[in-house]
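Q: For a teaching handout, I want to show students what a protein-ligand complex looks like in token form. Below are the inputs, and the small molecule is adenosine monophosphate. Please produce the holo structure.
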Amino acid sequence: MSLVDRQKILDILNKYDKKDITIATLGSHTSLHILKGAKEEGFRTAVVCEKGREVPYQRFGVADEFILVDKFSDIVNEDVQQKLRDLNCIIVPHGSFIAYAGLDRVESEFYVPMFGNRSILRWEAERDLERKLLLASDIRIPKKFESSADIDRTVMVKFPGARGGKGYFVAASPEEFDKKIINMIDREWITEDDIEKAHIEEYVSGCNYCIHFFYSALKDEVEVLGMDSRFESNIDGVTRIPAKDQLELALDPSYVITGNHPVVIRESLLPQVFDIGDNLVEAAKELVKPGMNGPFCLQTLCTDNLEIVVFEMSARIDGGTNTFMHASAYSYIMFGEFMSMGRRIAREIKNAVEEDKLEVVIT
Ligand code: AMP
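A: Here is the structure, written as tokens, with adenosine monophosphate included.
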């Protein structure tokens, strides 16, 4: 599989009328504020949408152009790509876009200029690459256990793929690991094949902060634009039951994300927050050229000794940015106006057009 030819992408970009750029994305995930933010910055907007799911984009009035497809994965079809290029589109990738289009096809077949570094998307998708980048960034991450036989403390067991935490479990010994694996198979939450792919890591007891950064390649600066925490089912429900009743109910906790809420972190922790963002950007410059570009998110747990531990990374806009479709406490302090992550992306594209540096922010 060969990756998209950068020169071909630049040739496409060169043919675009830079005064008539459209910002486009797939109608799902964070598209409402991506499109709204683009309009606020004066761009035309386009949404690629599965037939029948266009209603929110019509009713909220965020899309100027609708490209309706039978299924979301059709966004990589040649006719859809052509329509996008005809509109001078810059695509903003998000989690659902990658899931539906398929990472392989985004990397090798999708010839529409894309905001950000498309090569880094694989680094969030593959756990080993993600760990490599976080370790190179000198960021504190949970200790990894190579085998269930080595479990000597409470661990969290995860499985590959975006399944919203379904099938994850907590165990404190090799025996408990074996028992819970069988239980998960019986429930058909995991398959026999998943067992050897189980990722076992130290359970970090702390509060959840998902930190939404924006790295401006134009300014070479990391911004903290917002933070959210997650509502997870059924673990959040389980914790509302007194401990003695939890035992009797024998509920197995799961970590399926169902929503997000905005949070702020203790002000004295902000230096640590900026440090981990800066460190990741520096390491990415070395490992995944041209490095981080635009939004990224570090999902963290903050322990009672005030250490921020990163257990997951998104190398593109994260769903938790929906908590600040208008502004977050941090984006307001930074910009003094309504600033969503979507609008920040559009602002970067606008600045790049004005400085004639669009090639710096797209791949
Ligand atoms: P993930 O799929 O990695 O985003 O994890 C889903 C959820 O599991 C997180 O939002 C946390 O609530 C929890 N979690 C993940 N990793 C850990 C860990 N190492 N220690 C404690 N909780 C974790």
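A: Two things your students might notice: The CA atoms of residues 156 and 170 lie 5 Å apart. The pocket of adenosine monophosphate is lined by residues 142, 156, 158, 165, 168, 201-204, 208, 230, 232, 255, 299, 301, 311-312 (CB under 6 Å).
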